[in-house]
Fold:
Amino acid sequence: MARKQASTATLPDALAFAPVMLRARDGTILKWSAALTLLYGFTAGEAEGRKAHELLRTDYSGRRTQLCTELESAGEWTGDLINRRKDGSKLVVAVHCVQLAGEDLVVETNVATGRRNPESDYYAAIVESSDDAILATTLEGMITSWNRASENMFQYSADEMVGFTVDKLLPPDRRREEEIILKEVGLGHKITHYETLRLRKDGAEIATSLTVSPIRAADGHIIGASRIARDITERRNVEERFQQMQSELAHMGRLNEMGQMASALAHELNQPLTATNNYIAAARRNLDAQPAHIERALDALAKAGAQVLRAGEIIRRLRGFLSKTGPETQAELVERLIEDTAALAHIDAKFRDIALKFDFQTANVRVVLDRVQFQQVLLNLLRNAFEAAECRPNPEVTIATRAKESNVEISVSDSGPGLAPEIAENLFQPFITTKQGGMGVGLSICRSIVEGFGGKIWYQPAPQGGAQFLFTVPLEMA
Amino acid sequence: MARRICILDDDDAVRDSLRALLESYCLEVHEFSSGRALLAQGNLADFGCFIVDFHMPEMNGLELLETLRARGISAPAVIVSAVALGSDARDAAGTGSVQVLTKPVPEQELIGWIRGALAGETALT
Structure:
């Protein structure tokens, strides 16, 4: 239809030097005057057949729909728009459109106003100087603006992008994202800090945080999308480094734990050494006696041997705890795990004259995890509990288990003074500590370990006063 | 003179080995695993001396000695500790001249102390 009319539409020669075009309602240019060639730099050959708003990259400032509607109903529209010349420069033009009744034909004149658009210049300056890539698209996804930071981030110039869709930036497996983004924005929703991947011109992937907001016209309806893209590659690297540091810290935390346990262990090792010394002395004296008490000497020597093994066992436990091995998960009996860990902590408890109690409400339940990490969590909680319990008379610490749906819940309660609410709030954040000389990483490491198990860790006041730390670990799937 | 020796230690092996050693010296030994067990038996005055571990749950060695002194038991006592105790801990006992030895105690040192104790040389006034 339009084509047919195009052939019949003519521009009187008299109008050749007027800045006027004949176009279809959808913008398709049918006739392009010589004056427009002077104004925009596009020849008739380049312009005719293209859509005017695409050719001129018209900035409707959100009024396109309004313009079309008004033109349809009143048959006429007058106003200022911003078009671009062939060289890319912007031009504010006074536009007058007349729609010929009953025909798919619009007569449009464009007169350069020589005016600048102070408001848009002001915002343009801000956008242009932003460190974040800022671009605007129509609701159809066509890019209408592309700032310098976009050029830097994606390596495409504004000329390469404006007037095109963002497809070039999408990794093949993320093409659907763009549809969803446009749909969401069209519904008036904002997408905030969505983390995804985008492609640079050289094909490299960029970790990108996207914020997309609807652009609304003065009357409130949505006419496009403004997009802010931030290159978060560096932040990602920092995060990875932080993860790595956390695991280093976990190891350090373990060493720290060791340092504090060392004096208690010295005591523990002294017991078998003392006993061994006594048994050997007794054996020697029994052999030396007249007559020699062979039976008693042999008995004492056998017992001395057992005490040497006991010392070795203490060292073995210590070494297992200290060695830095990656997580090795295997199915473990919860109660056994707790007892083994408590055997390490028991020394410390005894040293501080603290009664360590158990309240197991589970029997032979199994979890799949790395036992060293589990020990680390429990030892950390126990040490905190010991320190808290110590400040009150008759110090007591209880380790309890109970089954909670598909988890086992393990709690460590102390008879200490409990925690002030403001301290309780930030307990699991790194580098927050109430302890002198504490690094404040203990509980945050516990949290990352427990979350790594697929569980949770939290604090609550103990029923009998004092503090209670609880964590859950998923049970082994049957 | 009472010649029975009281050993108080919560570690079974330490207690048993000490008994074996002292019996090889033909000494009569009675052993207890906690202060409570010791205090519960009636013949405290029959002991010639006390060898007491410092680190024990419920009641540590110093607390036990204080209790003994409060009950008028004045037989010599030695506290053995895995770590060297500071003077604070000794003063805390309020018992004046409690002997403190560090584990493991060399045989001759221990036997020397026991002989002296039983002979009344180190008896407390």
In short: The two ends of chain B are 16 Å apart (CA to CA). Chain B has one domain: 4-118. Chain B has a mean pLDDT of 82.
